[in-house]
Design a protein that fits this description.
Blueprint: H1 9-30, H2 53-142, H3 181-187, H4 191-221, E1 224-230, E2 235-241, E3 245-248, E4 260-264, E5 268-272, E6 275-276, E7 284-292, E8 297-308, E9 314-318, E10 334-338, E11 345-346, E12 348-350, H5 353-376, E13 378-382, E14 388-392, H6 396-422, E15 426-429, E16 434-439, E17 443-448
Antiparallel strand pairs: 1-17, 2-4, 2-5, 2-16, 3-15, 4-7, 5-6, 7-8, 8-9, 8-10, 8-11, 10-16, 12-15, 13-14
């Protein structure tokens, strides 16, 4: 507890006051009586300027409280900064892990794409090799007596070649158009006819085998090679809505003319068991949307999908494809959801009900008022038989004006009803949102060498010779 002490300045001030009184007294005594001044009141000493102990304690207490508040604020800021540093470190580790995972996934996808391209190239090379072998076999069957010599025919060196005995003597070769008189007299035939017969038999045998070779080549080209398979219940993550989702709200449980939409598939395609579908990206889906007014969201079903290979070959799978769905019944390929898995994507309600109701109420009010004004100018008489007869008993102009306004209001009301029957309520979701595709059917993506392509233009050189010199 603080001990109160006296102020040391007070004795000094009291002493100074006493000295001043003594000095004034002596001064007054030393002067003449007529010059003496009468002191009306005793002067009082002014209050000291120094702070009291209570003020000092209050000042110190306020300073200590301010310092305590600042220290607490600094501690809070330090704790917040320490927490943010920990979060930044955790986020950095998470980002590094995500980047590593994406890089590994991209490398794996590129490797699998390269393997698939190698398989396709190997298949094309094997088909070309089979074609070359078939053509070589057909040529060997067409000309079975030709030797492997590189010497052209017609130089008189047909017997000189591989396996032929060399000789220094001159060898004469008769030309093909020479006529052998002895053979003509003996057999009635010429060398030219024999050559024609042999050539005709070779052409006949080649002609008989050509349809078989052509059929084999056609069968090889028409074979469809399976490349990718998107299994049922697969989830294609990271897809983007190319168009806006406009879901019409059903009227009496039916949706008339549902709005179409398109979705493009992303690179993340989860099949099952933690496996992904390599190479399946860039697929374009199309479907229809339906709105839900209560939940203010849009549901969508997918009806068809199109995939394009690197060489431009197109593969399209539709929900009404008889080859994929028995009986030809139309079944959707899948449905969509948002990134959190919500099968109904939240959107904005669009309706003209407030404007229609306000216009309808105003028109009906005008019609009722006009009817009341017209009826006020009439008198109704009830007969004994119970029939009611009305007659105009008031102002005829007011009666006509009321009926006119009533009829016009009724026509406006009918027009509003007809126009409202052509409008609809909808839920709108803008384009570009990230969604997920859930597949309900197995999608076989096959490669058809003879199928439709984006372009069928051939790059033939116009200056290339198509025959031998």
């Amino acid at each position: 507890m603080a001990i109160a002490t006296s102020n040391r300045l007070l004795p000094l001030l009291a002493g100074a006051v006493v000295l001043m009184l003594v000095f004034v007294t002596l001064k007054s005594c030393s002067q003449e009586p007529e010059d003496a001044l009468v002191l009306e009141s005793v002067p009082q000493a002014p209050a000291p300027d120094a702070d009291s102990p209570a003020d000092t304690i209050k000042t110190l207490t306020a300073n200590v409280a301010s310092m305590t508040t600042e220290v607490q604020a600094l501690r809070k800021d330090n704790d917040q900064l320490r927490k943010e540093n920990r979060d930044l470190l955790a986020n950095r580790h998470q980002i590094e892990e995500n980047v590593t995972t994406r890089v590994k996934r991209e490398l794996l996808s590129h490797e699998k794409d390269r393997e698939s391209r190698d398989r396709i190239d190997a298949g094309v090379l094997s088909s070309l090799t089979a074609r070359v072998d078939a053509l070589s076999q057909s040529l060997s069957q067409r000309y079975p007596n030709q030797s492997g010599s590189d010497i052209p025919v017609g130089l008189g060196l047909d017997d000189v070649g591989e396996g032929a005995a060399t000789s220094d003597s001159l060898i004469w070769v008769e030309p093909l158009d020479s006529v052998d008189d002895a053979a003509l007299e003996a057999n009635g035939n010429s060398l030219l006819q024999r050559v024609g017969q042999s050539t005709g038999s070779a052409l006949t045998s080649a002609t008989e085998k050509t349809p078989k070779i052509k059929q084999a080549l056609t069968q090889e080209l028409s074979t469809v090679h399976p490349v990718y398979t998107v299994p049922r219940n697969a989830t294609l993550i990271g897809s983007t809505a190319m168009t806006a989702l406009v879901g019409r709200v059903p009227v009496q449980g039916q949706v008339r003319d549902p709005m179409p939409f398109k979705v493009i598939t992303g690179a993340d395609n989860l099949a099952a068991n933690g496996l992904t579908v390599p190479g399946v990206q860039g697929m374009v889906w199309s479907g229809t949307a339906v709105g839900d007014w209560t939940l203010s969201c849009v549901t969508g079903r997918l009806d068809s999908v199109t995939f394009v290979f690197e060489d431009g070959t197109i593969r399209t799978i539709s929900g009404d494809d008889r080859g994929n769905q028995g009986g030809g019944a139309e079944k959707p390929l899948g449905w969509i959801s948002d990134e959190q898995g919500m099968p109904c994507i939240t959107g904005e309600r669009k309706t003209n009900a407030p404007a229609f109701l306000s216009q309808r109420i105003g028109v009906m009010a005008i019609q009722a008022a006009a009817e009341a004004a017209a009826n006020a100018e009439t008198t109704s008489v009830v007969s004994n038989a119970g029939s009611v007869t009305s007659s105009v008993s008031g102002d005829t102009g007011r009666f006509v004006l009321g009926k006119t306004i009533s009829g016009g209001s009724e026509e406006v009301s009918k027009w509003l009803l007809e126009r409202q029957s052509q409008s609809f309520d909808a839920v709108f979701v803008p384009a570009g949102i990230r969604i997920a595709i859930h597949v309900d059917r197995e999608l076989p993506i096959d490669f058809d060498a003879t199928g439709r392509k984006l372009t069928h233009e051939t790059d033939l050189d116009p200056y290339r010779r198509t025959r031998l010199d």
